[in-house]
Amino acid sequence: MRMLRWFCGHTRRDRVRNEVIRDRVGVAPIEEKLTQHRLRWFGHVQRRSPEAPAPMRSGVLKQAENVKRGRGRPKLTWDESVKRDLKEWNISKEVALDRSAWRLAIHVPEDP
């Protein structure tokens, strides 16, 4: 955001909102870009052959058994975040097997 503000000629003291700056420059929100990159990697993992070496076999990372968990809320795992992203974007896992359809499904336009 600092670079985008400099590009537009604004400083933090001008009190211009981040959304306004992103709209002027034509940049997508960072949350959507992070989700897009996470789903792109998920597509790579899904398209791997079943004979691929562990730990990435058929898109599921192996989780250790009988490990003592810490106190409090469990950490958000990569699998859980991908499931959440697929649900939010209304995409099924089977689309990942077709690379061109997957690219279209996870594309985030630069101009929001």
Task: Write up what this structure looks like.
This protein has a domain at 30-61 and 73-106. 46% of the residues lie in helices and 4% in strands. It has helices at residues 2-8, 18-25, 30-47, 78-88, 99-106; strands spanning 56-57, 60-61. The chain has a two-stranded antiparallel sheet. A hairpin with a 2-residue loop joins strand 1 (56-57) and strand 2. It is flat and about 55 Å long. This is Transcriptase. Residues 49-72 are annotated as: Disordered.
Question: What secondary-structure arrangement, pairings included, does this model have?
Answer:
Elements lengths: L1 H7 L9 H8 L4 H18 L8 E2 L2 E2 L16 H11 L10 H8 L6
Antiparallel strand pairs: 1-2
The amount of beta strand, in percent, is under 5%
| Unreliable stretches | none
Fraction of residues in helix = 40-55%
Overall geometric form: flat
Record field, number of beta strands = 2
Spatial strand order of the main sheet: 1-2
Give the integer mean of the pLDDT values. Answer: 85
Task: Tell me the Rg in angstroms.
Answer: 19 Å
Termini Cα gap: 16 Å
Structural class: mainly alpha
Helix/strand order = HHHEEHH
- List the total number of helices: 5
How does the major sheet shape up? 2 strands, antiparallel
Summarize the structure.
With 112 residues, the chain is mainly α.
What keyword list fits this structure?
two-stranded antiparallel ribbon, 2 strands, mainly alpha, 46% helix, 112 residues
